[in-house]
Design goal:
Shape: elongated
Strand order of the largest sheet: 8-7-6-9-10-15-14-11-12-13
Number of helices: 38
InterPro entries: AA-permease/SLC12A_dom, AA_permease_N, SLC12_C, Slc12a1, SLC12A1/SLC12A2, SLC12A_fam
Structural class: alpha/beta
Number of strands: 15
Radius of gyration: 42 Å
Helix content: 40-55%
Family: Belongs to the SLC12A transporter family.
Largest sheet: 10 strands, mixed
Subcellular location: Cell membrane
Catalytic activity: K(+)(out) + 2 chloride(out) + Na(+)(out) = K(+)(in) + 2 chloride(in) + Na(+)(in)
Membrane topology: Multi-pass membrane protein
C-alpha cells in the first residue's frame, strides 16, 4: 500500500504511486463534520498524532476521497490560496494540511532523490534541508508561495524540476533491455561457442566421460563463483555502464579497475577477431569440400573474416536494438542445432554412421568411454586448458550494464541462469556423445567382425565392427579423430554447421559490443587522459561510435595477421584475470567490513570468493604459464602507471575501507603497547591557523615529523559561535586538501572557542588517538607582542603554561620576517579574481566580434585593454606566487621569500644546538632528525653546553662520550664557561629600555599609591619581581651576546627555552626574555621537552 501527499490524490482517477502519504483534508466547519459522521463505511484509515491540534486536523486515508470535499481547496489543479504573503510555517492555512506530518516542520521524509549522485541519469539530485536549517531559529517574515511551502514542508523541493523533465524526455527514446534479452541471451550465446560443436567430443574421447564431466564441473565452479561475486557486487548499489571494469573499479579503486579495464576491453576486441576467424575457417572448409576456393586457405580466411566483421560492425552501429534482435535470431538457430544433435542420437544409425563409430546409446560404449585414454602429449590439465575458454563469456550481460533496465536484478538472474543452462547442455552433450560414439573408427563399412574373432572387450567388436587396425595406424573417425562427430550424429548435419555459424557470430557480436562499452566507461572516468577522445557517445543510447571504430580496426588487424594461435592463450588469461579480480573484489569488500557493503544478493561467501580468485589465478597458469606471466606483467605495469598518475576520483572503494580498518586495528593494537624511549618521536600540534597562512612554521615542523611523527596543523576560531562554526566547517576539506596538494604529511584540525587560549587548551587535551597523541606544541614567536593587546599576550604565555601543565613539550620558532602571510594571500586571491574576469571579458568580446561587425564591441575591447591589471608570476621553488605590482595594495617581498626558506635545500653550514638545560633530550633530538633530511643533510651539528671554566676539557670529553653513546654525530662541542657573568652595559641598557614601558616602579612611590597601581595594573613588571629574577634576566641578555658571537652565521639555532615559573614571572617580563634572547639572530628554535627521556643509549 502507498500513501500520497501530492495534490493529485484529490482526483479519484489518478492512482497513488509516487509519494508516501495520502492526506485527506477535513474542513473544520460543522457541515463537513456532519458529512463525515454520516459516512457509515468502515473506517479504513490510520491516524498520526503529534498533538491535539494535529489529531483534529489531519486524517491519513488509504481510500479515494470524496471529490466534493476538495472543491473549495483545488482550483484548476492549484491551491486556492496563492497569496505571496503566505508563510511557509503557517499552520492555519489549507496548505498546512499538505505537510507530511501536519505541523510546521522543515524536516523531510526519506526520499530516493536525496541519495542520488549529482548528474545521475536516473533522476535529479535533491538536497535535503541542512541540519543548520532545521536546528537554527526560524527566520521571520519569510514570504513564499503555497506550492513552495508544500515542497519545503514535505521535502519535495526539487531545484530544476524543468531540467529533470527535460532529462526524462531525452531518455524517452533510449533502448533498455530486461534480464532475458539483455543478460540471459547474451551470456548463453557467449558461453556456447564453437567448442560445443567441434571440440567437446574430442575432450570426452581424451578424458573419458568421468573426467570430462569433472572438467566441465571444474570450469563451471570457476564461472559460478565468479557469477556469485559479480551478482553480489552488482547488487551493492546502482550499476552504470562499463561491465567488469565498472564493478572492479568501484570495488577496488581506479588502480585495479584502470589496469584490468584496459586489458579487458582489448581482450574483447581481439576476441572479435578470434570468433570471426573461427567462422571464416568453417566457411573455408565448406568451400574446400565444394572445390570453390577463391585464392588460398589463408587469404580466403582473411577475405571472409574482413567481410564478416564489416557486417557485424554495421549491425552494432545500427543500434543496440538491432544487435539484440540479431542475438535472438542467432540463439534460436543455436538451440535448434543443439536439439538437432539430441534428436540424432535416438535416430537408428545406418551402416555408414556405424563404420564411423556411431551406434546410438550403448551401455558397452558408455563403459568403455567412461575412463580416460590420453594420447601422447595430452593430460588432464592440457585437456582442461583447451575446454575452459568454452565456459567463459559470463560477463557478456554485465558488459552492457548501462543498457539494462535494472542491472541489479538482471545481472544476477540472467548470469546465474545462463551458467546453469549452459552447464546442463555441456554435460548432456558430453554424456550423450560418450555413450553413442566409440573413440576410434575406420569409416570403412567392410570392417565387420569375422566369425571366430576375439573381441578382447572392445565395444565396437561387440557391436559387429572391427576397428583394431586403429591401434597401429591413424584413423579418421571416432571421438579421438573426428572433430565433426556432432554433425555425423545429428539428425540433419547442415543444422550443426548453422549452429557453428551462430555460435561464432553471436560471440563475435557480443564481444564487438562489449569492448567499446567497457572502453567508453574507462575513458569517461578519465583515468588515462590520452584516451579521453573515446569517451564521447552518440544518439539516445550514448553509443560509443569511436570505440566501435577502434574495436573494428583492432579486430581487422588481428584477422589480417592470422596468427591467433599465439595470441589466444593471452586473451583467455586476460579474461581470467578479470574473473580473478571480480572475485577478489567481492572478498575484499566483505573483508573490509564497510557498512556500505550491503549487497541485495546474499548468496555469496567472502572465503568462497577468495577461493575463486585463487582458482582463477591457478587456471591461468594451467592454460599457459607464459601467457599468465605476460598478463601479470602488463597488469602490474598499468597498475603502477595509474597509481603514479593518481586520478582524481573517489568511488568509496573497499581499498579505502580496508585502509581504515587496518589503521583502526593498528591504532588499537598500539594502545596495548607501553611507550618506550627508543620509539619516541616528536608528535606535534602546530598552531599555524590556516596551514597556507604560515607555511614557514609548517615547513620547519614538517621537516622533523615527515615519515616519522604525527603533525597536526591547528586553527582556533574565536568569535560568535554560530559564525565561527560555519566558517570552520566550510574550510575543513579545503585546508586538508591544500596539505595533500602540497605533499605535506599532516592533518588539519580546528576548534571554535570563546578565546584563543581555551581553544588551544581543548586541542592539547583532545587531539590525537590512543598512542598517537601530540607530545610537542609548536608555535611561532609573537613578534608584535609590544603592540598587541594585553589579552593576546596573556593568552600566548598562557598556552605555554598549559602545555607544561599537560606535560607537553614546547617549541617556539622565530624568523626575522615573521610567519603570517595572510595579507599576501588576500592580494594574490584578488589578482587571480581580476585575471579571471579579464580572461572572461576577453572571451566574451571575442565571441561578440565573431557575431557582430559593429565598432562598439571593439571600442569596449579597447577600454578593457586600458584596465590596469597585472599578471602573477609563479615562483618555481615555492607554492606562493610572487606578485610584481598591484594597485590594490603593497606587500613585503622579503616576507614572501622568508615564507619559503625552509622549502629550499639548505646551504652547507651548521645547526648550532645550545643544550643549556637537560629537558630529556628533545633539544638534541629535533636537530638530529633535521640532519637526516635531504634538505638539511649538508648541515653539521655543533653542540654548545654550559660548564665551569676550570673544567672545560673534562666536560667536553664527558659530553662527547654522552653523544657517542646516543650515536649522534656532531662536528664540534663547545663548553661555554662564562654564561653567568653579567652582560655588557649596552646590552643590558637595551633590555631595560625594552621593559621600561611595562614597569610599575612601585619603589619610587608611597605604599598606598603602589598598592593602588598593583590593583589597577597587575600585569606590569614590579621592581620586586625584577630584582628577584635579576640573575635570570642577566642570563638571557648574556646568552644573546654569546649567540651573536658564536652562532651568527649558523643556518639554524636550536636553543633551550627558558621556563617561566607560574606566579613568579609576569607575562611581559617573560616575553622580554624571549625577545632579548633571540634578537638579531638566524632562525631560532626555542625547545623545551617535558623532562622525560626521549634519548637512550641502551639497546
Amino acid at each position: 500500500m502507498s500513501l500520497n501527499n501530492s495534490s493529485n490524490i484529490f482526483l479519484d482517477s489518478v492512482p497513488s504511486n509516487t509519494n508516501r502519504f495520502q492526506v485527506n483534508v477535513i474542513n473544520e466547519n460543522h457541515e463537513s463534520s456532519a458529512a463525515a459522521n454520516d459516512n457509515t463505511d468502515p473506517p479504513h484509515y490510520e491516524e498520526t498524532s503529534f498533538g491535539d491540534e494535529a489529531q483534529k486536523r489531519l486524517r491519513i486515508s488509504f481510500r479515494p476521497g470524496n471529490q466534493e470535499c476538495y472543491d473549495n481547496f483545488l482550483q484548476s489543479g492549484e491551491t486556492a490560496k496563492t497569496d505571496a504573503s503566505f508563510h511557509a510555517y503557517d499552520s492555519h492555512t489549507n496548505t498546512y494540511y499538505l505537510q507530511t506530518f501536519g505541523h510546521n516542520t522543515m524536516d523531510a521524509v526519506p526520499k530516493i532523490e536525496y541519495y542520488r549522485n549529482t548528474g545521475s541519469i536516473s533522476g535529479p539530485k535533491v538536497n535535503r534541508p541542512s541540519l543548520l536549517e532545521i536546528h537554527e531559529q526560524l527566520a521571520k517574515n519569510v514570504a513564499v508561495t503555497p506550492s513552495s511551502a508544500d515542497r519545503v514542508a514535505n521535502g519535495d523541493g526539487i531545484p530544476g524540476d524543468e531540467q529533470a523533465e527535460n532529462k526524462e524526455d531525452d531518455q524517452a527514446g533510449v533502448v533498455k533491455f530486461g534480464w532475458v534479452k539483455g543478460v540471459l541471451v547474451r551470456c548463453m550465446l557467449n558461453i556456447w561457442g564453437v567448442m560445443l560443436f567441434i571440440r567437446l567430443s574430442w575432450i570426452v574421447g581424451e578424458a573419458g566421460i568421468g573426467l570430462g564431466v569433472l572438467i566441465i564441473l571444474l570450469s563451471t565452479m570457476v564461472t559460478s563463483i565468479t557469477g556469485l561475486s559479480t551478482s553480489a557486487i552488482a547488487t551493492n548499489g546502482f550499476v552504470r555502464g562499463g561491465g567488469a571494469y565498472y564493478l572492479i573499479s568501484r570495488s577496488l579503486g581506479p588502480e585495479f579497475g584502470g589496469s584490468i579495464g584496459l586489458i579487458f576491453a582489448f581482450a574483447n576486441a581481439v576476441a572479435v577477431a578470434m570468433y570471426v576467424v573461427g567462422f571464416a575457417e568453417t566457411v573455408v572448409d565448406l568451400l574446400k569440400e565444394s572445390d570453390s576456393m577463391m585464392v588460398d586457405p589463408t587469404n580466403d580466411i582473411r577475405i571472409i573474416g574482413s567481410i564478416t566483421v564489416v557486417i557485424l560492425l554495421g549491425i552494432s552501429v545500427a543500434g543496440m536494438e538491432w544487435e539484440a534482435k540479431a542475438q535472438v535470431i542467432l540463439l534460436v538457430i543455436l538451440l535448434i542445432a543443439i536439439a538437432n544433435f539430441f534428436i540424432g542420437t535416438v535416430i537408428p544409425s545406418n551402416n555408414e554412421k556405424k563404420s564411423r563409430g556411431f551406434f546410438n546409446y550403448q551401455a558397452s560404449i558408455f563403459a568403455e568411454n567412461f575412463g580416460p585414454r590420453f594420447t601422447k602429449g595430452e593430460g588432464f590439465f592440457s585437456v582442461f586448458a583447451i575446454f575452459f575458454p568454452a565456459a567463459t563469456g559470463i560477463l557478456a550481460g554485465a558488459n552492457i550494464s548501462g543498457d539494462l533496465e535494472d542491472p541489479q536484478d538482471a545481472i544476477p538472474r540472467g548470469t546465474m541462469l545462463a551458467i546453469f543452462i549452459t552447464t546442463v547442455a555441456y554435460l548432456a552433450v558430453a554424456i550423450c556423445v560418450g555413450a553413442c560414439v566409440v573413440r576410434d573408427a575406420t569409416g570403412n563399412m567392410n570392417d565387420t567382425i569375422i566369425s571366430g574373432m576375439n573381441c578382447n572387450g572392445s565395444a565396437a567388436c561387440g557391436l559387429g565392427y572391427d576397428f583394431s587396425r586403429c591401434r597401429h595406424e591413424p584413423c579418421q573417425y571416432g571421438l579421438m579423430n573426428n572433430f565433426q562427430v556432432m554433425s555425423m550424429v545429428s539428425g540433419f548435419g547442415p543444422l550443426i554447421t548453422a549452429g557453428i555459424f551462430s555460435a561464432t557470430l553471436s560471440s563475435a557480436l557480443a564481444s564487438l559490443v562489449s569492448a567499446p562499452k567497457v572502453f567508453q566507461a574507462l575513458c569517461k572516468d578519465n583515468i588515462y587522459k590520452a584516451l579521453q577522445f573515446f569517451a564521447k557517445g552518440y544518439g539516445k543510447n550514448n553509443e560509443p561510435l569511436r570505440g566501435y571504430i577502434l574495436t573494428f580496426l583492432i579486430a581487422m588487424a588481428f584477422i589480417l595477421i592470422a596468427e591467433l594461435n599465439t595470441i589466444a592463450p593471452i586473451i583467455s588469461n586476460f579474461f581470467l584475470a578479470s574473473y580473478a579480480l571480480i572475485n577478489f573484489s567481492c572478498f575484499h569488500a566483505s573483508y573490509a567490513k564497510s557498512p556500505g557493503w550491503r549487497p541485495a544478493y546474499g548468496i555469496y561467501n567472502m572465503w568462497v570468493s577468495l577461493f575463486g580468485a585463487v582458482l582463477c589465478c591457478a587456471v591461468m597458469f594451467v592454460i599457459n604459464w607464459w601467457a599468465a606471466v605476460i598478463t601479470y606483467v602488463i597488469e602490474f605495469f598499468l597498475y603502477v602507471y595509474v597509481t603514479y598518475k593518481k586520478p582524481d576520483v573517489n568511488w568509496g572503494s573497499s581499498t579505502q575501507a580496508l585502509s581504515y580498518v587496518s589503521a583502526l586495528d593498528n591504532a588499537l593494537e598500539l594502545t596495548t603497547v607501553e611507550d618506550h624511549v627508543k620509539n619516541f618521536r616528536p608528535q606535534c600540534i602546530v598552531l599555524t591557523g590556516g596551514p597556507m597562512t604560515r607555511p614557514a612554521l609548517l615547513d620547519i615542523t614538517h621537516a622533523f615529523t615527515k615519515n616519522s611523527g604525527l603533525c597536526i596543523c591547528c586553527e582556533v576560531f574565536v568569535g560568535p559561535r554560530k559564525l565561527c562554526v560555519k566558517e570552520m566547517n566550510g574550510g575543513m576539506a579545503k585546508k586538508q586538501a591544500w596539505l595533500i596538494k602540497n605533499k605535506i604529511k599532516a592533518f588539519y584540525a580546528a576548534v571554535a572557542a570563546d578565546c584563543f587560549r581555551d581553544g588551544v587548551r581543548s586541542l592539547l587535551q583532545a587531539s590525537g588517538l590512543g598512542r598517537m597523541k601530540p607530545n610537542t606544541l609548536v608555535i611561532g614567536y609573537k613578534k608584535n607582542w609590544r603592540k598587541a593587546p594585553l589579552t593576546e599576550i596573556e593568552n600566548y604565555v598562557g598556552i605555554i603554561h598549559d602545555a607544561f601543565d599537560f606535560e607537553i613539550g614546547v617549541v617556539i620558532v622565530r624568523i626575522s620576517q615573521g610567519f603570517d602571510i595572510s595579507q599576501v594571500l588576500q592580494v594574490q586571491e584578488e589578482l587571480e579574481r581580476l585575471e579571471q574576469e579579464r580572461l572572461a571579458l576577453e572571451a566574451t568580446i571575442k565571441d561578440n566580434e565573431c557575431e557582430e561587425e559593429s565598432g562598439g564591441i571593439r571600442g569596449l575591447f579597447k577600454k578593457a585593454g586600458k584596465l590596469n591589471i597585472t599578471k602573477t608570476t609563479p615562483k618555481k621553488d615555492g607554492s606562493i606566487n610572487t606578485i610584481q605590482s598591484m594597485h590594490v595594495g603593497e606587500f613585503n617581498q622579503k616576507l614572501v621569500e622568508a615564507s619559503t626558506q625552509f622549502k629550499k635545500k639548505q646551504e652547507k653550514g651548521t645547526i648550532d644546538v645550545w643544550w643549556l638545560f637537560d629537558d630529556g633530550g628533545l633539544t638534541l633530538l629535533i636537530p638530529y632528525i633535521l640532519t637526516l633530511r635531504k634538505k638539511w643533510k649538508d648541515c653539521k651539528l655543533r653542540i654548545y653546553v654550559g660548564g665551569k671554566i676550570n673544567r672545560i676539557e673534562e666536560e667536553k670529553i664527558a659530553m662527547a662520550s654522552l653523544l657517542s653513546k646516543f650515536r649522534i654525530k656532531f662536528a664540534d662541542i663547545h663548553i661555554i664557561g662564562d654564561i653567568n657573568i653579567k652582560p655588557n652595559k649596552e646590552s643590558w641598557k637595551v633590555f631595560e629600555e625594552m621593559i621600561e614601558p611595562y614597569r610599575l616602579h612601585e619603589s619610587c612611590k608611597d605604599l598606598t599609591t603602589a598598592e593602588k597601581l598593583k590593583r589597577e595594573t597587575p600585569w606590569k613588571i614590579t621592581d620586586a619581581e625584577l630584582e628577584a629574577v635579576k640573575e635570570k634576566s642577566y642570563r638571557q641578555v648574556r646568552l644573546n651576546e654569546l649567540l651573536q658571537e658564536h652562532s651568527r652565521a649558523a643556518n639554524l639555532i636550536v636553543l633551550s627555552l627558558p621556563v617561566a615559573r607560574k606566579g613568579s614571572i609576569s607575562d611581559l617580563l617573560y616575553m622580554a626574555w624571549l625577545e632579548i634572547l633571540t634578537k638579531n639572530l638566524p632562525p631560532v628554535l626555542l625547545v623545551r621537552g617535558n623532562h622525560k627521556n626521549v634519548l637512550t643509549f641502551y639497546s
